[in-house]
């Protein structure tokens, strides 16, 4: 039995004896009053005997305080058999002289009263048992049997008063059990004698589900938790879950963990959620809440962290099979011991006991991630007012442990008329991140969408994303928005194709225009070339003409020269020189 | 204070009685005196008495399921019968031990 010793607070005015029962020591601020008797009362089957026995067993095992169990109803063998089913091996401790079991058998019809007597016989028996092992703890279960066994109650009452005085003088820490009575706490008014500490156990049935509860009615000389605390009887004994939400001082880390869906991480500021935060995934049926939770858990395992999945709708194997169909392999991690799936029916026990059980499992397994799928099922039987404080305790507890938690919640009424924001059980205010998943019915099909309703302490996307489950896993897609309408599924695909086609068409138009321009440019070029050729031709012609003219001139001059020569040398010389060009 | 039977006639007494007391208190002394007186009157010659002081032998208290003192236990004949108190009532003594009165009842003891 692995339970750590409870370390009492530093300010202890009254010496206390730890019971070793986790939770109870916290409520009582360290345990039962040392050296004084404590009364534990309650109806039949509420766990008095077990609580008393656990007090002795843990005393002997954890604190080295031997104990005497004096029983008036069951025999030692019966008791040993009864508590063995709860994991206590009394015989071993009896053999090691840590515990003495003494069965006081009273049979009314074996007795005949003649004159005065006292209960020294009982005192001597008890004293002998205490001395034989040096007991520090004593349980009397239940003294009330004496009232039916001994006819003279006035003697008995006087003797009981003496007995409690005597127990105090012996300095043993005692538990006295008493059956709940009609008028008082106990049938024979034992509370009259035990004035130091009274613990009431209760076993109530509400909505066909029974819940055990414990309350410290009175604890003289010390403060203690006043509330009723649910407790369960597990294979390891009693477990009381104290209210943790008296304080709100859990540390807030800055480390972020991935949700396992990259696009979702992107929506949450690009890094996922804070470690130790609580995520609520709510949505109508079939929107993929469980898948998202499973993905979250699987991702934690991939990181090498431990994860715990509480399933209240499907069995463990069913979950593993179903998740495999979308590429989430949980089985591997279960085999590796990183993942634990705890599946049970919500109606198995009350909400409070479910929480106690979760509390215990989280303490034992120490996961980094916890998923509860779904919390809305847990709240079936309880009224809404009762749900919030209990869930608050769980969330607070998980935060204290720095466990990242994912809760799925089924919103009632999938129609668009009921607002999903209203359909939560008032727990959303406790959550750090709230993802809302919806089914969009349009165009003859339903498609899943997801958006981030809130995410404390981080930037988050305001966009609606389409949530797609494929054999390869979970993905988020951008949705198409057309005329104020969000398109998903094939409508989105159609719209996307439509847009693509239009884009292509436009592309083709552009090319056409470019080609036209190019040919025009070519035509222009050709024209330019022709004109240039024309000009060239003109130039050539012009040059030719000039040449011809020059030649004519030359010829004329030669003719003139030859004429002058023929007329006279001198005069002609002068004229000739002047006339030269 | 365990003492041998004081009036043993037959090898096995028909009435084997055991008186549990806690110390030499006036109550236990009264009980013992009353017991001797009653036995002589009604069971003369067929009884044995063993007195057990639980202060000396506390481990014996569990055996006969002793709670109150003084307690007289009729170990034989079967079944075991118990009488608690100082045996000041002769009638209840006889009823408790299932004994037929030998002579008319008279006030016994103090």
Number of DSSP E strands of chain A: 25
Alpha carbon gap, first and last residue of chain B? 23 Å
What CATH calls the topology of the largest domain in chain A is Rossmann fold
Widest sheet of chain B: strand order? 2-1-3-4
Which structural category do the helix and sheet elements of chain B fall into?
Answer: alpha+beta
Euclidean distance between termini CA atoms of chain A: 138 Å
What is the count of distinct domains of chain A?
3
* CATH homologous group name of chain B: Glutaredoxin
- Low-confidence spans of chain B: none
Largest sheet of chain B: 4 strands, mixed
Count of helical regions of chain A: 16
Q: What is the CATH H-level superfamily of the largest domain in chain A?
A: P-loop containing nucleotide triphosphate hydrolases
Q: What is the CATH first-level class name of the largest domain in chain A?
A: Alpha Beta
**What's the gyration radius of chain A in Å?**
48 Å
Q: How many alpha or pi helices of chain B?
A: 2
The helix content of chain B, as a percent range, equals: 10-25%
Rg of Cα set of chain B: 13 Å
Low-confidence stretches of chain A: 414-418
Helix fraction of chain A, binned, reads 25-40%
How would you explain this protein's 3D organization?
The complex is a heterodimer of chains A (581) and B (110). Mean pLDDT of chain A is 82; it is low at 414-418. In chain A, a hairpin with a 2-residue loop joins strand 11 (228-234) and strand 12 (237-240). By secondary structure, chain A is an alpha/beta fold. Chain A is built from 16 helices and 25 strands. Chain A folds into 3 domains: 16-239, P-loop containing nucleotide triphosphate hydrolases (Rossmann fold, 3-Layer(aba) Sandwich), CATH 3.40.50; 256-478, P-loop containing nucleotide triphosphate hydrolases (Rossmann fold); 493-573. Chain B is an alpha+beta fold. Chain B has one domain: 3-Layer(aba) Sandwich (Glutaredoxin). Chain B has 2 helices and 4 strands. In chain B, a hairpin with a 4-residue loop joins strand 3 and strand 4 (81-84). Chain B is globular, with a radius of gyration of 13 Å. The interface between A and B is medium-sized, with 24 and 32 residues.
């Amino acid at each position: 039995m692995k339970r750590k010793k409870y370390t009492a607070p530093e300010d202890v005015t009254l010496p206390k004896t730890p019971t070793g029962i986790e939770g109870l020591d916290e409520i009582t601020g360290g345990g039962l009053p040392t050296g004084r008797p404590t009364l534990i009362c309650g109806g039949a089957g509420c766990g008095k005997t077990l609580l008393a026995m656990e007090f002795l067993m843990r005393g002997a095992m954890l604190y080295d305080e031997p104990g005497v169990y004096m029983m008036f109803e069951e025999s030692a063998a019966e008791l040993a058999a009864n508590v063995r089913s709860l994991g206590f091996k009394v015989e071993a401790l009896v053999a090691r002289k840590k515990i003495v079991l003494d069965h006081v058998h009273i049979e009314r019809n074996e007795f005949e009263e003649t004159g005065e007597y006292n209960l020294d016989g009982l005192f001597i028996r008890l004293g002998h048992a205490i001395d034989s092992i040096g007991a520090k703890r004593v349980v009397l279960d239940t003294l009330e049997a004496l009232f039916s066994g001994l006819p003279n109650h006035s003697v008995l009452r006087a003797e009981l008063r003496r007995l409690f005085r005597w127990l105090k003088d012996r300095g043993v820490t005692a538990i006295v059990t008493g059956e709940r009575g009609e008028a008082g706490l106990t049938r024979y008014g034992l509370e009259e004698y035990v004035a130091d500490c009274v613990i009431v156990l209760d076993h109530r049935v509400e909505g066909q589900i029974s819940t055990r509860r414990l309350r410290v009615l009175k604890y003289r000389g010390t403060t203690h938790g006043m509330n009723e605390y649910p407790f369960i009887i597990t294979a390891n004994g009693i477990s009381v879950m104290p209210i943790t939400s008296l304080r709100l001082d859990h540390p807030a880390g800055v480390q972020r963990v991935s949700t396992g869906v990259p696009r979702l991480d992107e929506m949450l500021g690009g890094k996922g959620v804070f470690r130790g935060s609580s995520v609520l995934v709510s949505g109508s049926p079939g929107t993929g809440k469980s898948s998202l939770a499973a993905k979250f858990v699987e991702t934690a395992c991939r990181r090498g962290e431990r994860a715990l999945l509480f399933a209240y709708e499907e069995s463990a194997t069913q979950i593993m099979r179903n998740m495999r169909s979308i590429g989430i392999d949980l089985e591997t991690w279960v085999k590796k011991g990183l993942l634990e799936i705890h599946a049970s029916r919500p109606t198995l026990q009350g909400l409070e006991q479910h929480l106690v059980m979760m509390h215990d499992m989280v303490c034992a397994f120490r996961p980094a991630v916890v998923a509860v799928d779904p919390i809305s099922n847990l709240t079936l039987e309880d009224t809404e007012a009762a749900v919030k404080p209990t869930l608050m305790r769980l969330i607070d507890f998980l935060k204290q442990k720095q466990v990242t938690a994912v809760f799925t919640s089924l919103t009632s009424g999938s129609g668009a008329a009921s607002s999903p924001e209203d359909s939560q059980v008032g727990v959303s205010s406790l959550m750090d991140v709230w993802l809302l998943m919806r089914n969009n019915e349009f165009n003859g099909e339903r498609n899943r969408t997801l958006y981030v309703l809130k995410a404390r302490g981080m930037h988050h996307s305001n966009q609606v994303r389409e949530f797609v489950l494929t054999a390869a896993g979970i993905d988020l897609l951008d949705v198409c928005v057309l005329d104020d309408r969000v398109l998903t599924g094939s409508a989105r695909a159609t719209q996307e194709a439509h847009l693509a086609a239009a884009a292509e068409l436009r592309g083709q138009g552009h090319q056409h225009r470019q080609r036209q321009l190019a040919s025009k440019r070519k035509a222009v070029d050709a024209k330019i070339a022709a004109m240039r050729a024309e000009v060239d031709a003109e130039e050539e012609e012009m040059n030719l003409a000039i040449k011809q003219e020059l030649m004519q001139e030359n010829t004329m001059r030669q003719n003139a020269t030859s004429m002058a020569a023929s007329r006279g040398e001198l005069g002609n010389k002068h004229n000739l020189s002047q006339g030269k060009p | 204070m365990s003492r041998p039977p004081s009036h043993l006639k037959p090898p096995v007494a028909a009435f084997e009685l055991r008186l549990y007391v806690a110390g030499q208190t006036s109550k236990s002394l009264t009980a013992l005196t009353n017991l001797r007186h009653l036995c002589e009157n009604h069971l003369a010659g067929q009884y044995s008495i063993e007195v057990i002081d639980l202060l000396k032998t506390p481990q014996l208290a569990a055996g006969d399921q002793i709670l109150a003192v003084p307690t007289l236990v009729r170990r034989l004949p079967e079944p075991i019968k118990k009488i608690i108190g100082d045996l000041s009532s002769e009638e209840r003594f006889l009823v408790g031990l299932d004994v037929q009165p030998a002579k008319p009842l008279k006030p016994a003891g103090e």
